[in-house]
Amino acid sequence: MGHRPGIRLYLALLVIAAFLPVGGLATAVFVLSLRSDYEVAWQRAESRAAFLAAAVHTQMDTLAGTLDVLSASPDLLAGNLAAFHTQARAITGERLDAVSLVRPDGLTLLNSRVPPGKPTPAFSVPQDEVLRALDQNRTIVTAIFQGASSKRPIFAMIKPVMVQGRPHALAVGMFASRFDPLLSWAEAPWTVALLDNTAAQVATFPENSGIAALHAPLAEALGDETSDRVHLKLGPTGAQVEHMTVLQTIHDTDWIALAAFPAEAIEAPARRHALLYGLGALALAVPGVMLALWLGMRLARSMGAMAQFATAMGTEPPPTDLHLPTLKGACHELDVVAAQLERAACDIAARDAQVRQQRDLAEENAIRVARKSEELARSNAELEQFAYVASHDLREPLRMVSSFLTLLERRQGDKLDDEAREFLDFARDGALRMDRMILDLLQYSRVGRQETVAEIVDLGHVVALAAEELSTTMAEAGAQLHVDTPLPQVMGCPGELERLFLNLIGNAIKYRSPDRAPAVNVTASPVTEGWRLTVADNGIGIAPDFHDQIFALFKRLHSRDSYGGNGIGLAICKKIVEHHGGRIWVECRPQGGSAFHFILPSAQAASG
Question: Is the pTM of this model over 0.70?
Answer without folding.
Answer: no
